[in-house]
Amino acid sequence: MTHTMHEFDCYADVRAALADPALVPELPAADDGSVGASVAWLRASVARFSCGEPHRQRRALIEAQLARLDPALLREAAAAEGVGEVRTRVVRTLAEALRMPEPGAVAEAVITVARIYFGGADAAADDAVTRLVALLAPDPADSAALDAAAQRIGLLVQSCEATAALVEAAATSGDVPLARVLRETPPVRTMRRIAARATRVAGREIAEGDVVLLDLATANRTHPVPLTFGSPPRVCPGRVHALALAEGLLHRPLPPFAGLHHQAAPLLLPNAWDYASAAALAEQGFAAIGTTSLGVAAAAGVPDGAAATIEATLALARRLGRGSFLFTVDAEGGFSDEVEEVAELAQKLYDAGAAGINLEDGRPDGTLAPVELHAAKIAAVKNAVPALFVNARTDTHWLGRREDETATRLALYEQAGADGVFVPGLSAPDGIAALTATLVVPLNILYAPTGPTLSELATLGVRRISLGSLLYRRALAAAVATSTAIRDGRPTDLSAPSYNEVQQLGVPD
Hints:
The chain is of the alpha/beta class.
């Protein structure tokens, strides 16, 4: 029977095809019986070419392997790799991180397999599979170990090609953010799907057995949100690790504050409003401190978000800069719509000692700044102060805007050079997971008492959790509650730091 080839290169059509459960990865020919000894066996055994329950079980094995890897340590290991061919360095770094025996031999064999992994036959590749299985599952009678070995080999093979392609593309792009590289030069340029049953995509009737070719490279040119790491239900489980490997191999510097966003556990960022509150939090072991624009504005008797606290914000940054802790400054929308003025402010904050800046696109009148303007602010700040961590905030959720606008804005902010992105008001697990599946930079979420816990947010892929104005508002509530309880003769908890303890907080080391 003859099957039709359908080609899609429109962004919306490609996205719809990727999300259609009737379109499955092109499955390889059935295993030829050479268990653990051929590329045909490998293709028939890995998650990449599986569907249904076998795919779920095999993917779980891969996710368990990746869960053992701290992206920050993987990045460091990649940066320490010596010179050599990119694919060798990628695979060797990952094999070492996964504690595989003989990482050099593993890399050599994986590169041989990768050349024909997506089609074709080759005796040398079959021999390479045999060597890999002997290293990773020496007992061929142990079917569980053999299956686990297949998933580990498949993970390395896909990392070999895709991550190396990303590194090579980025290496020729100078300091262009990886998010922009992924959009303009995706490491996976095309994907193939087979119709497991008849379906209809973008107005086209696709019969069972038809082949669907998805041109990701062309589709990405028409939309800011790149189709880089797949689309539900097959989002790549190793995207964070691939980016860590790429950044390490590219030897791009990672300042200490930025490094806190690439660790196994998310950065919990409490927000202070004066020197004493920041110092008290730092004394409790918090790795970094943020400021709250509401706290700064309310203390000055002016509204938040109205660009009325630029001098107060700068003064606070200079006071915080006397301390020995890392801090990042909430600067509203940069206190100006003049891009050059925002860049000048960023330089002043950095000179005062700030490690980061938070820039929001929400405006006091309940509208959002034009996305191009906010992206231009981000680009100008990164150009003026490359070492300053820019956390680009969008207020789409607080303003009840459409979900796709959030993704579009964040993608453009990433491509403008943002080091992280922030979506206050987002707390639905599905919404968070959908964003982390497509983002390149770390996602910052505002902690909500009724929302996911810290551990749940970590599982969803969130890399930074801010407390925002919560601490300032709680401090006001405690002051009022204590005062009224004393006035009214009600019992109250009067425990507090002593005079001397607070006095010492105000004296920087």
